[in-house]
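Worked problem 6 (solution included).
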Amino acid sequence: MSIEPTPRPQPPADVPSDEDRRAVVATIQQALADDQVSFDEIDERFRRVFAARTQAELRAVVADLPELRRSPPPPDARHLAARSSFKLLGDTKVGGWLTLDGDLTAINVIGDTVIDLSSAAIPDRGVTVAAWSLIGDVKVIVPDGVRVQSQVISLIGDRTERLTPPQPGAPTVRVRVQLAVGDSGVYSLSEVPIGRLRRLWTALRRSGDDQVEDL
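Solution. The predicted structure is:
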């Protein structure tokens, strides 16, 4: 006698999918760049996104926002992030509406490096970000809720890591930094400190492109 396998129950149609949540997160990030929400409230909005159990609860997170100047682009309208970059002298700044189709590597001999993945489409398998610098700071910004594995080697300089709790099922961003002289920082979006780094984040977001060389 054969036993028929019990079919796996399907989640109710009203339950938000991971893609639904990512779309709302992208909307909040765009509103933040457009000065329609503040950094002080973004952490609570992201908490509500991942706690939402119905589509109505998810929509309510952004129901109070005015119409955005520009809606988040669909996955096929994003820029493909450059897989590697090398600079002898000068800063490297990468961010915006990106799709990551592989790991990222940035090498700076003398200069600062900022890699902003807060609006990037990160594959479910995760991604590795590697940065090397002889003299210069390295800052990496990740979306709230992703899981981060960081490894930093620095001879002279401070290390800062400010991350929000990872959400179930979120992809992993592996950060590998090697510095001779310079500070390193890994931040979740809502933990980006006030000051130059936050202004840089806003400029990268408003550029609408995948890279801003000089600010």
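Discussion: The CA atoms of residues 150 and 175 lie 5 Å apart.
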